């Protein structure tokens, strides 16, 4: 019996098995991903195409593609909304918030991980609680009163300081990176005569490169898209308004007619800095994603 069985050819392991890309689960996954990609990109595509339409054509909404491509919409939007000034204000808020958040969150992450002090667990708990308790506009008045006390209510520095204070998400991202850095490096630096601040600046901070890149991307995006707080702080100072607030000036023209095509063009212009930041931070983002998949 064994000899007869041994003489028969063994069935191939791949016979009757569908390729991976033809399996029902894989097909369903691809369909789901394509649908999600379409739902995400379609509104952006409509906004970009709408920015080249006339106001009447955009209001009618009959076609997706513009009948006549009005490239002058971007020129008019730039001139009408004083985009150069608003762009500078947005860059000031976003860059200042990003730099300040990275410094404060990285120092906090390094200090909490390396030091043992009373109230350490309470501090971590409070940081986590601020991520899940959303008070929104309820704290705008107290925040504004604090800036009035500091005489910063008419300056963009008040907005930057308040945005830097909301650094809990960045803190936990960098905290996980700091915990992965061996403590032996701190001990070696201490033996060489380096202080804790020197160790942080010369050793820890350079090793946090991927985490800083990802945190910078998220922080810059959040600060760039912030609307309510800059609106409150710049009501009496129109020259300090960022792009998110300044875009509302494009809504109505001199004849009180809605100028939706200019708003579309202005919105598309405001997307460009985010794309540029993403291009520079993409490498760090991919490094962090790849590192999280390693076993």
TrEMBL record:
Bilayer topology term: Multi-pass membrane protein
Subcellular location field: Cell membrane
Gene3D superfamilies linked: MetI-like (1.10.3720.10)
Protein name: Carbohydrate ABC transporter permease
Residues covered by the ABC transmembrane type-1 domain: 87-281
GO cellular component term of the entry, any: plasma membrane
Similarity annotation: Belongs to the binding-protein-dependent transport system permease family.
Spans traversing the lipid bilayer: 27-49, 91-112, 124-144, 156-178, 199-224, 262-281
Biological process terms in GO annotation: transmembrane transport
Primary subcellular site in the record, as a coarse category: membrane
Keywords (A to Z) from UniProt: Cell membrane, Membrane, Transmembrane, Transmembrane helix, Transport
Domain of life (superkingdom): Bacteria
């Amino acid at each position: 019996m064994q000899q007869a069985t041994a003489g028969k050819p063994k069935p191939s392991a791949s016979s009757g098995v569908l390729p991976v890309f033809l399996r029902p689960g894989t097909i369903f996954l691809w369909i789901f991903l394509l649908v999600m990609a379409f739902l995400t990109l379609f509104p952006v595509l409509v906004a970009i195409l709408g920015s080249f339409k006339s106001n009447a054509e955009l209001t009618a909404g009959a076609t997706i593609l513009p009948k006549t491509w009005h490239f002058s919409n971007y020129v008019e939007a730039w001139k009408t909304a004083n985009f150069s000034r608003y762009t500078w204000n947005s860059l000031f808020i976003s860059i200042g918030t990003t730099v300040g958040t990275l410094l404060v969150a990285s120092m906090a992450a390094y200090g909490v991980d390396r030091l043992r002090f009373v109230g350490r667990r309470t501090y971590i708990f409070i940081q986590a609680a601020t991520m899940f308790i959303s008070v929104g506009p309820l704290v705008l008045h107290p925040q504004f009163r604090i800036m009035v006390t500091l005489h910063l209510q008419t300056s963009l520095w008040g907005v930057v300081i308040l945005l830097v204070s909301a650094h809990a998400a960045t803190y936990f991202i960098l905290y996980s990176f700091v915990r992965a850095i061996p403590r032996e490096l701190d001990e070696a630096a201490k033996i060489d005569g380096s202080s804790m601040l020197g160790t942080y600046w010369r050793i820890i901070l350079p090793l946090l490169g991927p985490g800083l890149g990802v945190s910078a991307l998220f922080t810059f995006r959040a600060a760039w898209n912030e609307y309510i707080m800059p609106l409150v702080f710049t009501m009496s100072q129109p020259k300090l308004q960022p792009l998110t607030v300044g875009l509302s000036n494009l809504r109505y023209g001199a004849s009180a007619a809605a100028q939706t095509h200019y708003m579309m063009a202005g919105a598309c212009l405001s997307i460009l800095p985010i794309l540029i930041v993403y291009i520079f931070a993409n490498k760090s983002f991919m490094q962090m994603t790849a590192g999280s998949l390693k076993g």
